[in-house]
Design a protein that fits this description.
Blueprint: H1 5-21, H2 26-43, H3 52-64, H4 69-86, H5 90-93, H6 111-119, H7 124-136, H8 140-144, E1 151-152, E2 157-160, E3 169-171, H9 175-188, H10 206-219, H11 228-241, H12 246-253, H13 258-262, H14 269-273, H15 278-289
Antiparallel strand pairs: 1-2, 2-3
Helix pairs in contact: 2-4, 3-4, 6-10, 7-9, 7-11
Organism: Bradyrhizobium australiense
Keywords: DNA integration, DNA recombination, DNA-binding
GO biological process, one term: DNA integration
Length: about 290
């Protein structure tokens, strides 16, 4: 018999309390609740009655449905939290495993392509927002969450509050980025949010920002698959090509692990092209030993 809202609400409340105690972000809490609801719908009964075989069947169901690896892994993480923390039923999730996903190289724009994209932005607000995404390496959620008070032009920093993982960090804006933000502020005089949405009391949505990014890429005739995250990838790669230490880039991006940042070493084409092949070294040695005569 399908579960009712009355039956699940105490359980859901308990799970939300467990996530709140651990300072999960509101979006993360929402996503976790939705995934448990989907699991319950698959079962047709309250999820706290599930067995290991039920969890296993659900994983098979997701795989057979053609769901992507990230979604499967997010579901496994959610169910692990639900059974381990909220229900204290460790045995259910001891044998659940995430799926290994081959890491793909990110799409990166050249500096010239970035310049074209920013010039093609649909209006000053979006040009400023996209410039922050590239110029400071911010995620979409971090860009739209910026407030006027987060821009410290005296200290030359942008304060990013509660980024991914609930961590605050400071990033550096360039003088040209600060000038652009001043131009935007003087033109629109936003109050509170740096990039307000249609309702000035609310910030711009990530959906609006991504749509503007896609429109700008199309106007700039960039044929690569571009998203707002592409600007963040490009920020990291271009810094690496300027010989900025990868550990500094890790801090600027707010990455927990250096391995995540090190991925950009595989797409830094300028750095790669400047590496001299050992074959070239060998040819130089041979020319030294046997000068042309």
């Amino acid at each position: 018999m399908p579960m009712t809202d009355e039956a699940v609400s105490p359980l859901r409340r308990r799970m939300i309390e467990d996530m709140t105690i651990r300072k999960f972000a509101p979006k993360t809490q929402h996503d976790y609740v939705q995934r448990v609801k989907h699991f319950a719908a698959f079962l047709g009964r309250s999820p706290d009655t599930a067995s290991f075989e039920d969890v296993r069947r659900y994983q098979l169901h997701l795989t057979a449905s053609g769901v992507g690896v990230p979604t499967i892994n997010q579901t496994v993480s959610t169910l692990r939290f639900f059974f381990r923390v909220t229900l204290k039923r460790h045995q259910i999730i001891e044998r659940t495993h995430v799926v290994h996903e081959p890491r793909k190289l990110p799409v990166v724009l050249s500096p010239e392509e970035v310049a074209r994209l920013l010039d093609a932005a649909p209006g000053l607000k979006y040009k400023a927002a996209l410039s922050v995404a590239y110029g400071a390496g911010l995620r979409a959620t971090e860009v739209v969450s910026l407030k006027i008070a987060d821009i410290d032009s005296q200290r030359m920093i942008i304060r990013v509050e509660q980024g991914k993982g609930g961590k605050d960090r400071n990033v550096m804006p360039s003088p040209s980025l600060l000038n652009l933000l001043r131009t935007w502020w003087k033109a629109a005089r936003p109050q509170g949010w740096l990039f307000p949405g249609r309702d000035p009391a609310q910030p711009m949505t990530t959906r609006q920002l991504n749509r503007a990014c896609h429109a700008a890429a199309q106007m700039a005739e960039i044929n690569k698959r571009v998203s707002l995250h592409t600007l963040r990838h490009s920020f990291a790669t271009h810094l690496l090509e300027q010989n900025i230490d990868v550990r500094v880039i890790q801090v600027l991006l707010g990455h927990a692990k250096l391995d995540t940042t090190a991925l950009y070493t595989r797409v830094a084409t300028k750095t790669i092209s400047e590496v001299m092949s050992p074959l070239e070294h060998l040819a130089l040695k041979l020319r030294e030993i046997r000068p042309p005569g």
